[in-house]
Queue: 2 jobs
Job 1
Amino acid sequence: MPSKANLVDIFSNPPPWRKWPETQAVLDALINEGGAVRFVGGCVRDALLGLATDDIDIATDLLPGTVIQGLERAGITALPTGLDHGTITAVLNKRHFEITTLRVDVVSHGRHAEIAFTQHWERDAERRDFTFNALYLDPAGELVDPVGGLADLAVRHVRFIGNAEDRIREDRLRVLRYFRFYARFGANNPDEHAVRACAKAARQLGQLSVERVQKELFLLLDSENPGPALELMDDTGVLAAIIDGPADKGRLKSLLSLDVPSDGLLRFAALLGGDKERALHLATKLRFSNKQKDRLAVMCAGDVVADMPASTRKEALYKIGKAGFLEQTLLLWASLGPNHKLDAYLEEASCWTAPEFPVTGQDLLSRGIGEGEKLGRMLKEMESRWIASGFRRTKAELLSDFLPDA
């Protein structure tokens, strides 16, 4: 990420998305309806930081119906994805643009606000969350900064627009968004007003949609270095409110220190101390997918332990698979500490190709074993003996062991 002195001059060096022909087509469609338009939010912020993005937001003073009319006249698909809040999605050649009418929040409910449309750009900026998310870029390439977002971005300072408590009262999800943006853009300079307001709102986070909580949690955990933000969340009581109890910050810090990639789900398991029961309980509460829960169940099962002989490691690899073995190894390594080397485990897993069990159900059926529980039990017993032999016993040997008279 660029340093303060290296914010990109996006007037002289427009971001790639500004040069897309689809971008100009959408702008032309809106301008031809008599509208004023500006890019806004994350696409502008990320362009200043030299970061790539495909999420392009456009603000306009046109009403939603006029936006739809202009897009359709230009042959651009207009989807009313957020019509109640003034948002239309323009789709052209697989490019998507979120176009939102300038608006103000009239009544806030802690998550969704009743809005009114406005013609005032400053009022639209004031109802946004953080200063660097209220930076606008006009079609000519001029930056518009109504709330001081550029200065905050330059020093990596995540600051609410106006009064932090007011912004959180409007939308409690902003508590989690603060820590997520701090993880991604902060520079160990937390805003004291923001932190105090987040701590004050910690007990109210149970009212949020669990799907939104899950999304914000993973966006934070998947950031390059979530550690400082999680420390801050823990200090404010926000983390305990989200994960229903204490966090194993030591194990997560150890995991992050390893020179091995990890993703949000593995970091989530580390944050919960590798506790399978707790991880699955929270995963159910936060509505993780079945695939995520299945993966958690394997990575927290504890099959991989310290000082395993090579033969036992191979058995574990066969039982839980390469991915499960690698993730259990990383959780174990994080628990033991980075100095406890488990490179041999990782090397063995990376080279692992699972052997194929040589006996099939058809082999037993052809030798007079009927379908049903007996057949299944015999296959499992044969497989166990095959594994115990180091995967060396052949089909003929196993059949002779179990069916000597067949």
Note: The mean pLDDT is 94.
Job 2
Amino acid sequence: MSINPLMAVLGAIFLLVATSSPSASAVALKVASIDPCTVADFPALCRGTIKGQTNVNAATDVAIRELMKRTRQAKEMAAKELKRDGGVATCLSNFNSAFDNLDKALKNIKENDGFSLNINLSAVLTDYDTCSDAMKESREINNVIYKSAGVLYQMADNCLALSTLVKH
């Protein structure tokens, strides 16, 4: 579940080019305004989540809200597990943390605070990754909680990608 190093490098290059060259920045924003999910690692999941939004701020907001909804559902599933120790306990804690960080991320969008937005969304990725690791360690990788954490991670990764396009 770790961040793909190649995608991280490509994302950094994209940001460098987009911020250093006005024409490259304009082209990137124009393409993203047509389909913001072009920057996402999981574009099909992104498109299904943002439901046709072309405004990057609105698309990021919608994606975060959907991720909050799915995190709440995963938390409810984890709370119903008979065995709530080990990996499940870690996931419950991390789902709570992720939800709090997503709430902060929504505020960051409203405040045009891209730096904090990226920090909070990065923390969310770590929360889901920690859950997956804990489930692997407890050998519960066939568990629905583990599988949910994987989808949540992909959605959070998409949110982080979208956040790089948010207008500040």
Note: The two ends are 30 Å apart (CA to CA).
